[in-house]
Amino acid sequence: MTLLAFGINHKTAPVEIREKLAFAPEKVSDALRDLVSREHINEAVILSTCNRTEVYCGLDMSANDAVLEWLSEFHQLPLEAISPYIYAHSDSEAVQHILRVASGLDSLVLGEPQILGQIKEAYMAANQAGAIGSQLNRLFQHTFAVAKQVRTDTAIGASPVSVAFAAVSLARQIFSDLSEHNVLLIGAGETIELVARHLCEVGVGKLVVANRTVERANELAKVFDAEPIRLNDIPNYLASADIIITSTASPLPILGKGAIERAIKERKHRPMFMVDIAVPRDIEPEAGELSDVYLYTVDDLQEVIEENRKSRQEAAMQAEDIIATQVDHFMGWLRSLDAVDAIRAYRDKAQQIHDDVVANARRQLLAGKDPQLVMNELARLLTNKLTHQPSVNMKHAAFHGDEEFLKDACRLLGINPEQTN
Fold first, then answer.
1. pTM surpassing 0.90?
2. Edge to edge, what strands does the sheet with 41-48 contain?
3. What confidence tens digit (pLDDT) does each residue in 245-273 have?
4. Residue 218: partners with Cβ closer than 8 Å, 6 or more residues away
5. Distance separating alpha carbons of residues 194 and 54, to the nearest angstrom
6. Phi and psi at residue 106, in whole multiples of 5°?
7. Residues catalogued as catalytic
8. Which residues, at least 6 apart from 162, have a Cβ–Cβ distance to it below 8 Å?
9. Considering just the CA atoms, what is the radius of gyration of the chain in Å?
10. What is the pLDDT of residues 68-82, one digit of tens each?
11. Which of 216, 339, 377, 409 sits between 20 and 30 A of 401, alpha carbons compared?
12. Cα 298 to Cα 164: distance, rounded to the nearest angstrom
């Protein structure tokens, strides 16, 4: 069986491509069931975040083209439009890739912790969809353990860096004193929660949280002393917002150029700072063309987070060493599966020999033979039967001068010929 890690990320594809290949949460289950129904694809997990869309598969043969064709078909995009951005890793490289991703080594923000939670959610979604098999299950459990080890044994997560942190840092560069400014957060997921936490830490002024379900907005509002509103209420609050940070799972933009243009006029052209962390994007890109609007996407945060990346390089090197060792451990387990059938057959044969010898001993006991003699005979027969075939094969190898076979047999049987002389 072949393991495959297949997809795109912020390094290989711009946001325009990533948003086209993103999977909405409500479509993941159907996508997984469709994927594992394809020939040669036995199990799968889909990881879809603002910075990456990846498919992890267990295949009964190399079927990279089949996964690419499925991805193209599912998103109704021509192959030539997406294939230049795709990467594919097989077997040990696939294991190394997911361990690096889970440990935050492949993230836009080096060492960011959010990705591990997103991988766990992807695993649970695949489990619920019935798309997980024994090998991916073992791989993801191993991944969670290794990511925890990296966090524990290195300083990869020592600094509070994330896309959320980078967004707030950029806002502080533009508005030096955030206590005098109003912030509108759109969405109520983990990223927005982190943004709200960082904003409160730097003493932001008024905070408004907009979400499709006001119940979730209420939850965040209670924690961060914010005002909760529905998405439909955004037009009433847009003009008063100096800073807008958005991260939802909406497949279509929530804020259009027209609504933002009206808000700018109402603000008498006071600057408006906007960060769109979502993929697909929540804010129409054309809004960035407006005067007095400063619109940034996740790709624009690269410079902000580069400074934080430098402080984590040493920890990242330590993490790479841990991952290299753990890749070997997992691949060793994977290779051991090849011996399962042979071991089972050997044990079945030994069990049959055992049953035959014991049955013979019982018959002798029932016939009144001396138990001590029966026990001795049982031991002799069992030993002879278990050693017969290996002895015949070793003699045959010696006769034909097959020294490599003899060495392998000695290793297999745990004996040292030099000690028997």
1. no
2. 41-48, 52-59, 2-9, 87-90
3. 999 989 999 999 999 999 999 999 899 99
4. 228
5. 24
6. -115, 15
7. 50
8. 109, 112, 113, 114, 191, 194
9. 31
10. 999 999 999 999 999
11. 339
12. 10
